[in-house]
Amino acid sequence: LTLNGSKIDGKTSLSGSDIKGHLSCTQAVLRNAEGSAFKAQGMKVVSSVLLEGTTATGQVSLLGAQIGGQLVAIGAAFHNPQGHAFNAQSTRVRGDAFLRYAQAEGEVSFMGAEISGVLDCSHATLRNPEADAFNAQRLVVREGFIWRRLRDVAGAVDLTSAHVGDLWDDPESWALCEKLFLS
After folding, report:
1. pLDDT tens for residues 98-116?
2. Measured between alpha carbons, how far is residue 40 from residues 9, 17, 66, 105 in Å?
3. Residue 13: enclosing H or E segment and its boundaries?
4. N or C, fewer C-beta in 10 Å, the chain?
């Protein structure tokens, strides 16, 4: 399924869909400020989900999705300051997940997600000053978690009960966190 370069006003819903290849929605503009801009809850994708360079106003939800390849949101911008900007709770990714250079206003959640490869948040901007900027409670990352060279973090970072294979980080990125929960 290819939505590259699309400009969509209103909700795009792929919830419950079963995609036998990949989902490519790169360089798209998705707008639904009053609710979900992109809703793909429970979606199954045999290959990768590509959101590279996409701008979304309204929630992007992959809640409970199953992705057989990679989740790529390099350079994406997610804007939903009153709630979840990017929701990947309970998502299963068999490859890597990339939020490199991503920008989010609102909560980014990987709570309860399982990623077989790496989760790369390097160079990201995560802003949700009154609540969680990055919620990764019970996250499992089998290979590694990259938390380096973050540009900005406003809000709490919650990694309670998270498990990662390797941790690639730097002290400057942790110092950006206003509140940090590690257990």
Report:
1. 999 999 999 999 999 999 9
2. 16, 8, 10, 20
3. strand 12-13
4. C
